[in-house]
Amino acid sequence: MMLSRQSHLDFFASYDSPIVNITADCRCHDFVASAKTQRVPPFAVLLHALATTSMLVEPFRRRLMGGRLTRVEHLNVSYTVIGADNNVNFSTFQFHEPFAQFLACYLADREEARQATYLRRASMENRDYLFVTCLPWLAFTAIQHPIARFGDCSIPNIAVGRFKREGEDVSFPIAIQAHHGLVDGLHISEFITTLAGVLNVAAAEICDA
Asked: Which Pfam families match (predicted)?
């Protein structure tokens, strides 16, 4: 059952910018080396883990649609790709929990996004999305995502940065932006902790593959 957040939504309804945005480091087992050994894009492993975590941490399944609180049952992942002429484009596909199925969708749609000569836009008939940006060149300490409608910013935006190896682990900056009427700082902390655990499992599973 979805815990009521109506009082929180009412409180933030009058805010010009009802978002919470926290940047922190995420440290986990070195899934990057494990992925490269199996010739799997490390970002595909990370993207799958981000989507998995968003479905495990309940507040990240909350969305607003037409002023109504809803819950994500079937997730679509949308992330940035460097496309034609080094301009940003978007790859969007349905999340599948089995990694092999997810990877096939990831690779196919990534190629379409890279080759597209137009800006690919996700259908916004619902809010069952997770938006992700990867900045592998930067160890950033903060980021601000553009938002079209502040009153309807219920789709979480997540940015991840450059990987840094630390012994047998890897760390990277992660920025999580969400509607504060739906998500609190505690939930963001829970998300990052859960993500590290999911990546730890992924690193071990890839090694055993």
From this structure: CAT (PF00302)
